[in-house]
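# nightly structure sweep
# worker-07 picked up a monomer target from the shared queue
# config: single-sequence mode, recycle default, output format = structure tokens
# input follows
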Amino acid sequence: MARSVGSSVAVAPGEDMDDSRFRIRPYQQILSSCSGALVTSLFMTPLDVVKTRLQAQQKVLISNKCYLYCNGLMDHICPCGPNGPMAPSTISKRPLHFTGTIDAFTKISRYEGVPSLWSGLGPTLILALPTTVIYFVAYEQFRIRLKELYQRRKGRDAELPIWLPLLAGSSARVLAVTIVNPLELIRTKMQSEKLSYREVGQAFRSMLRVQGILGLWKGFFPTILRDVPFSGIYWTTYESFKKHFNVSQPTFAFSFAGGAISGGVAAFFTVPFDVVKTHQQIAFGEQFLYAQNGDSKAAGPKKPVRSIGTFETMGRIFQMNGIRGLFAGLTPRLVKVAPACAIMIASFEYGKNFFYRYNVQRYQERKDRVASGSGDSSV
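# output follows
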């Protein structure tokens, strides 16, 4: 029997959080994932702002025109020019010199104000919230449906296979990326050209005219190549972690630890794809943010630019820097991804447990009303 960890509602024999009588509804999954995305963004944005500022100071950015902004939930291409969120005019009148992470936190807070640590939070949430909702709700729905199908064939007491969370997580990520990828491109264009919401339609039509319908999914393959394996490995590790300790209702601390471990494992195995995706996003950002905006210096002669494929990019990185090049940034990625995954899954599981207890209570109240003859005759 699965046990409940740190929960006031025990899971009775034969019952679990996937029981159709009590399991959380889609709208409850949406609320849980929204709260998780908000909490994760609030905690992770300052860390990424400091990391980006340190990178800019040390001149280790891949490009001087664009940089990749990530808060653990989403990746964003941002311009480094005078209109970019990291431009000197938006950072401070006098550039600050940082000696390390703690020094950067201290000086940014002192000279630029504490709110500067959350610069870029708004645009991040605009896309992070719907993406996270789609991803986590889709995962829960896929997992439950696959579990039901498997138990119909093998029996309710059959042990669930390891491929179930792997398939559910991978499918959920494909769905989320497919839906959100066009929105990310449009949002990037809006930020780079300072477009109003009324001009979004015009930008959308212009993009379709220049690049065609498939242009809305540019960068889709490298994103899938990194995010789908990450998602599959992450959910497989996390569900195995819960299964190993025989936990069905994890506490916040248990989910936090499981999320950190699972995120670290998934991040390690997908670092090469992350490196390739970063290179391709930066290259695409230069073309998308500058060449199409009429920046003659950035665009150069107007001639077709051949896109470099994922494996070709990987081959070039390997030729230049060897295997170490494909695992560049492993430590910063682990430091960033592990806590982000931990905060997100812990917040999501906390929301699930809250709504599960609420559903159990409502079910029991309806059952009591029926038993006392004051309610409906059916439950």
